[in-house]
Amino acid sequence: MDKKKQRHISRTIVLAILFIAVFYALYNNLTKETRGTLQKGDEAPDFVLTDSSGEQYQLSDYQGKGVFLNFWATWCEPCKKEMPNMEKIAKEYKGQVEVLAVNIGESEFQVNNFVEQYSLTFPILIDTGREVQKVYNVNPLPVTFMISPDGKVEDIIVGGLVEEDQVRALFEKVKPK
Asked: Which of 8, 14, 142, 148 has its CA at 20 to 30 Å from residue 106's CA atom?
């Protein structure tokens, strides 16, 4: 009887430890969005990235214009759906709102094929080391940050922008007055 009781106590302790570990992991994952993430109204972190031709782009160079900062990947289905609308609306708002599309960690070959396939003309930046992705706490893809002309995060959209009207409304939100 003592062995059974001892085994029961040991199992209970192991289960309690497992429960605590699972709870801790869930808590950390569910609350990570509220710890150290960008919020509406925050200053957008500056960064410098290059495109596939080696041209550098710095976010702060767009001060005075609205910025549609989109994080994407070639394998991302919602990204594929939103790109044509982004291209169309970017042409309409040229000079007022700039699109900076940041590819997350893919090769120039993959990115260039994607750009060709979708006939994209706005800057496609490559975050090879995923540093900007980490600073902006981007996960999952796509994520779009609408940045006002004064450099503040105006809106954060997680998920694809498949409707043209959605994209146009976001451009309107950050275009200079």
From this structure: 148
